[in-house]
Specification:
- The chain is mostly helical.
- It has one domain: Winged helix-like DNA-binding domain superfamily/Winged helix DNA-binding domain (Arc Repressor Mutant, subunit A).
- The chain has 5 helices and 2 strands.
- A two-stranded antiparallel sheet has the order 1-2.
- Helix 1 crosses helix 2 and helix 1 packs across helix 4.
């Protein structure tokens, strides 16, 4: 079973999904494997921190608002920073079995 992602990992996943060219909110949600409600909060927070920008591409003939997202220079710097940091450390994750710990093996 895989561990839960930290908030930082989720933010980085969203940034990377957008950076790879997925710009529509629903597609970002699927790409980052998030719920709609959680994604909305994260996108709002990331816009406020200038990691991504929100672009309105609504058509005057279409009454729906169409919003797409794009990674800013600051967001791109964050992605590069954490990718470099990840490359500097080696994380050795041996097969973890909590039952072995409980049994004293």
């Amino acid at each position: 079973m895989k561990n839960r992602r930290s908030k930082l990992e989720i933010y980085l996943d969203v940034l990377k999904v957008i950076k790879e060219g997925t710009t529509k909110p629903t597609r970002i949600m699927y790409g980052a494997n998030l719920s709609w409600k959680l994604l909305q909060g994260i996108l709002g927070s990331m816009v406020a921190q200038d990691l991504i920008e929100e672009i309105d591409v609504s058509d005057s003939r279409d009454k729906r608002t169409n919003t797409v997202y794009q990674v800013t220079n600051k967001g791109d710097s964050v992605i590069r920073y954490f990718d470099r940091a990840k490359g500097l450390i080696e994380v050795d994750e041996p097969d973890f079995n909590p039952l072995q710990i409980a049994r004293g093996r």
